[in-house]
Amino acid sequence: MTERPPRAENRDERREEAGGSADPDPLRPSRRGLLGMVGAGIAGAAVGLGGGVALSAAGVGAGGGSAQRSGTVPFHGEHQAGIVTPAQDRLHFASFVMVRGSSRDDLVSLLRDWTAAAESLTRGAEIGTGVEPGNALLPPDDTGEAEGLGAGRLTLTFGLGRELFVGSDGAGDPYGIRDRLPADFEPLPSFAFDLLEESASGGDLCVQACADDPQVAVHAIRNLARIGMGRAHLKWSQLGFGRTASTSREQDTPRNLFGFKDGTANIMSDEGRALADNVWVGAEGPSWLQGGSYLVARKILMTIETWDRGSLREQETIIGRTKLEGGPLSGGGEFDAPDFAALDPGGGSAPAIDLAAHIRLAHPDNNRGARMLRRGYNYVDGSNPLGQLGAGLFFISFQRSPEIFVRVQNSLKPDLLNEYIRHIGSGLWAVPRGVASGEFLAQPLFE
Q1: How far apart are CA 200 and CA 321, in angstroms?
Q2: 406 with 189: CB under 8 angstroms?
Q3: Whole-angstrom Cα distance, residue 179 to residue 165?
Q4: What is the pairing mode between strands 232-243 and 377-383?
Q5: What residues form DSSP beta bridges with 208?
Q6: Which of 362, 352, 353 is nearest to 421 (CA)?
């Protein structure tokens, strides 16, 4: 057997040009990890996109600025990137479960390895020794499909599921952190019209990968899944395209697959007071979570074909906004506040905005001021044998307490929109604060 000439000098030159180290720590799954995976009968496979060469190491923070222009978003910061970061065009969301019998050390080592990988991926650098190991008989540390694509403004946002704290039966302490469980970290209740599928719900860990290139996002999840082998495996994942919310005033309001502007009243990255009041966990939470948030993901199937047969007037009545401009039916432009007391301009005593219109029921004025930061995406998962699209909204929101989401969702029970949507997937995760240089993800939780 012969080994390929290592060509280490060329690899190092390429890595240094990409902003990486000339002698990185390989993040190849260990022999122990691979054996653990096989012993547990797990084949944790994920599809994804990722690294390449970094366009620039410049950056001013997760909010954008020069980082946005250069194509990189810093991984380190007070808060995790991918929350107030100007929303990218593509999503690969992944939910993982820990391998049965895994230990606290396994969980900590996984978070350490994921931190190291995320630091490389978000700056567009190869993982470990890249796509060409010194020994050609070994698998590459990096799968390589994002080579040359750059960082693509990739952000990786990590969350921890409740079962990490209490076990699958809710009465355990599998990783010795039960006493760190936040008081308000309760499972989401069952909501009206839920038709949840286990194959698209829950998970011990989640990773939200957002990027402007789909292959960069997929590459990231794929490599994190490889690194997790033997400790965690993929439970489910979702690809998304066409963001359905803006987090920056420089972005136009996007449209959902019903053709309406979505997220007009979303919290923006420059609304410091609104973020503190509604998104970031404050002094009321445990110290390890302060500065973090809670992530809710909901997979919402839209009955596209039925919706498309509705008249424009019916569609606008259901939403409460005009379809083309996005202004409230009470009058004004897209960003004008809706007047829920206004009457139908056509005459009569009917309100201009229907009592069961989506905009009315979801509005903060009707939810004791509750607001969420939304980062959802459209999705299409093929079609069924009847020729109907498996399409809809992959809803993602960040809020300082799960109760905020529950409050708003309960108010939507009479929503006219419910005739055209089905909630088929759901998940809730605690999102730790940002990672400082030299730390690993959620490190304060284990100290």
Answers
A1: 31
A2: yes
A3: 8
A4: antiparallel
A5: 93, 157
A6: 362
Whole-number Å distance between alpha carbons of 315 and 308: 9
Amino acid at residue number 383: S
Distance CA 85, CA 73 (A): 8
CA distance 248 to 403: 25
pLDDT (0 to 100) of residue 347: 80
Beta carbons of 295 and 281 less than 8 angstroms apart = no
Tell me, what amino acid is at 239? L
Per residue in 86-138, pLDDT (tens digit) is: 999 999 999 999 999 999 999 999 999 999 999 999 999 999 999 999 999 99
| Distance in Å from the first CA to the final CA of the chain | 47
The full DSSP string for 167-194 is -TTSS--TTS-GGG--TT--PPPP-TTB
SS3 state of residue 248: coil
Helices (H), 320-433: 358-362, 402-411
The answer to whether residue 335 scores a pLDDT higher than 50 is yes
CA distance 150 to 394: 26
Q: Is the pLDDT of residue 317 over 70?
A: yes
CA distance 397 to 361: 17
The Cα 120–Cα 68 span in angstroms is 17
Q: Which residues, 6+ apart, have CB-to-CB distance to 275 below 8 Å?
A: 84, 267, 269, 373
Per-residue CA distances from 427 to 402, 410, 442 (Å): 11, 16, 19
Alpha-carbon distance of 79 to 370, in angstroms, equals 21
Burial class (CB in 10 A: 0-12, 13-18, 19+), 30: middle
Contact 370, 408 (CB under 8 A): yes
Beta strands in 346-399 (DSSP E): 373-374, 377-383, 389-399
pTM of the model: 0.85
- Give the angle 371-377-379 at the CA atoms, nearest 5°: 140
